[in-house]
Design a protein that fits this description.
By secondary structure, the chain is of the alpha+beta class. The protein is 49% helix and 18% strand.
Length: 257
Amino acid sequence: MADRPAGSGVQSVERVFELLELITDAGGEVTLSELASSTELPLPTIHRLLRTLVAKGYARQLPNRRYALGPRLIRLGEGANKQLGVLARPQLKHLVDQLGETANMAMLDSDMVIYIAQVPSPHSMRMFNEVGRRAHTHDTGVGKAILAQLSDDDVRGIVTRAGMPAHTSFSVDSIDALLTELQAVRNRGYSIDEQEQELGVRCFAIAIPDSPTPAAISVSGPVSRVDDRFAEKAVPLLREAAKLISQDLNSTAVTAS
């Protein structure tokens, strides 16, 4: 493939996304010098692209002259989340049809998880998480499934910034205890919310492999129905659903490219 000229539109788009990803990786805000040290782009090019992003609302310059992600990205993110939820919904519905309990999909959003899709249980007594709700990672099934895919250092950073409030007496209340549990999640391949978000509710969750953004699916319901016998049936179905969602996500990405 022939090299693209330095001023090509396609290369400019690649550079813009590189800068946005660097700002995101830095925690949402960064200095011009930090950007320059993280990329091979010339400083004038970085400055020119940032001016354009600021003018369009996709970045903003703070009073301390650091650059942060801009508010117009929120609308794009909300649209992308909605589409991911639509893509996953058939697999979530299959889980509900097979298991009779509520199925959810959530993804990592900054230092929290955000629920992007749900198919409710047909039972009158059921678990309900509103789509768009944000929750902590340390005491949710989807959150722990996602954290188990990350390094211990990344986990420490997330829970240090977000905090570890105890929603019930069962909630994990220290980073060391959380890291120990995450190792157990990695070993068995799925996570459990054992009444940590809500008393009387148990949840099993599995991460979506090779997801462009860390994500997970779960099934949850009352402990009287969601027990060890339920898990024997649910975990293989969750694993298969996660694999199929991953295939759909990646086939969509290949088609788009």
